[in-house]
Design goal:
494 residues, alpha+beta, conserved putative lor/sdh protein from methanococcus maripaludis s2 fold, OB fold (Dihydrolipoamide Acetyltransferase, E2P), 25 strands, elongated
Length: 494
């Protein structure tokens, strides 16, 4: 049947549009093209109600649209809603965070001058690869070179003083030993003098007795008395000699200690001279600027003849800057809500560093360390990832995109977010049991995209409503829709 007016007919949007049929005398079973249904996909729910009321069901397959009759008893059932449902799936859920990152050298050291002087030679330039302890810049410090020679001479003089003091100590010790020997000699003279005194005393007394009997003359007695007195005087002299020898020995010992003190003083002066020489040598060694580690020279700010001085403020430029290239640091700021999930160190979270400047090349690594505390400026956790750079492709200053795997749960029950109903802080879902809805409280775990882990509340064989849970209620009679064809999606049915 043709329409005489080619212009589209204006209809009330509240009215239901029903496609015209080719054969008006067809029985109660009507045929509707699937393409017509998709033209009115925005009114999918109304068409579902119309099809249920008229008893029309569309089945789409490889052979094209077909028509099947619907049981009159089913059509007669009142209050039965058709829902999309299925069993919870077991799968591996992952939670990751994708953040921008910045690549920096693992170590980057600006090198300044420790001493004041003139640049004698610059041995490297930017881009040069250097080894550890390699000379980079040499300075000329003439006054320090003169100081070094002077201090070397002072060290030599101090060493001579020490040797002289050692010789004096040896001489004093020899004199002390001589004095001690004289003390021993004097003590031996005392013993001899005392023996002579005892002998003459005995002679005197014996002759005195003989003189009483007239056996000897008085003159002989006087001689013996004088000899005894002379022996006593000799004893006193020997005792005095001992004291003199002991005094001389004490003086010699004191002299030894004095000269030993002079030796100690000379040795101390030698140490002072040596320390001064070492300090001057150390300062002069600063005239050679060396690489602290193997790397690349990234900056150079001096030329031959420049006058340089020690850094004394923020305005002083470094002579050269050396950066380590064997390994780089990737800095990432992780938002506060994800910060507690970041694991670092041994067993740290896996990370993939993607560098756009290298054609999107990816580098596998793990989270090495974190700042633990959040930055007050952006409420983010500073994360560092060490990446090996054996090929030297990663350069300081590059930007990267970093994907950090925060959590991974294997073989867990999962439901789509659309199947979860939340009320008063609790989570629920609807299970279909004997055509009725049963509300099940859920214990949820990890959320990954549009899916969430279910820790408890359902079993793997339960049939769970997967969509439109907000419009359903417990105890409601429902009919589970068959699996939707590829072209007829759940979204269109709703």
């Amino acid at each position: 049947m043709r329409v005489s007016n080619p212009k589209p007919e204006v209809r009330n949007p509240k009215q239901t549009r029903t496609p015209k049929l080719r054969n008006a005398r067809a029985p109660e079973i009507s045929i509707i093209r699937a393409s017509d249904l998709f033209r009115v996909s925005n009114f999918g729910f109304r068409i579902s109600c119309l099809l249920a009321a008229t008893g029309v069901v569309i089945l789409s397959g490889c052979g094209g649209p077909t028509v099947a009759k619907t049981s009159p008893d089913r059509n007669a059932a009142a209050g039965v809603d058709r829902v999309s449902a299925g069993k919870p799936q077991r799968k591996t859920l992952t939670l990751s965070t994708l953040q921008p990152g910045r690549i920096d050298a693992f170590e980057e050291t600006p090198l300044y001058s420790k001493v004041t002087g003139y640049v004698d030679e610059v041995l490297v330039d930017i881009g040069d690869r250097v080894d550890e302890d390699q000379r980079l810049v040499r300075l000329w410090v003439p006054e320090m070179e003169d100081d070094l020679e002077q201090h070397r001479a002072l060290v030599a003089q101090a060493e001579a003083d020490v040797e002289q003091a050692k010789a004096a100590v040896a001489a004093a010790q020899a004199a002390a030993r001589t004095a001690e020997a004289r003390v021993s000699q004097a003590q031996a003279g005392i013993a001899r003098a005392e023996a002579d005194c005892d002998r003459w005393e005995s002679e005197y007394k014996r002759n005195e007795e003989l003189a009483t009997g007239g056996s000897v003359t008085a003159r002989l007695v006087d001689e013996k008395r004088n000899a005894w007195r002379a022996a006593e005087a000799a004893c006193q002299e020997a005792a005095a000699n001992v004291k003199s020898a002991e005094a001389a020995a004490a003086e010699a010992g004191a002299n030894v200690r004095k000269i030993q003190a002079d030796q100690t003083s000379a040795e101390a002066r030698l140490k002072v001279a040596g320390a001064t020489l070492a300090r001057t040598q150390t300062l002069l060694d600063y005239a050679e600027i060396k690489a602290p580690f193997a790397g690349v020279v990234t900056r150079r700010s001096v030329d031959t003849g420049h006058y340089v001085h020690p850094a004394n403020g923020g305005g002083t430029k470094p002579l050269v800057v050396v950066a380590s290239t064997d390994k780089v640091r990737v800095f990432v700021d992780v938002p506060e809500v994800e910060a507690p999930l970041v694991d670092a160190g041994d067993g740290g979270d896996a990370a993939v560093v993607r560098v756009q400047a290298l054609g999107g090349r990816e580098f596998d690594a793990t989270v090495t360390r974190t700042s633990w505390s959040l930055d007050p400026a952006n409420r983010a956790l500073r994360v560092e990832i060490d990446v090996l750079n054996d090929e030297g492709l990663l350069r300081s200053g590059m930007y990267a995109t970093v994907n950090i795997l925060l959590e991974e749960r294997e073989d867990v029950l999962a439901l789509p977010i659309a199947a979860i109903l939340r009320e008063a802080g609790a989570a629920y879902c609807y299970a279909v049991e004997s055509g009725k809805l049963v509300r099940r409280p859920l214990e949820l775990g990890l959320r990954s995209g549009d899916e969430v882990e279910v820790l408890g509340g359902i079993e793997p064989d339960d049939t769970i409503v997967l969509a439109r849970v907000e419009s359903l209620h417990e105890g409601q009679s429902v009919e589970v829709l068959p699996s939707a064809p590829k072209r007829l999606t759940e979204g269109n049915l709703r």
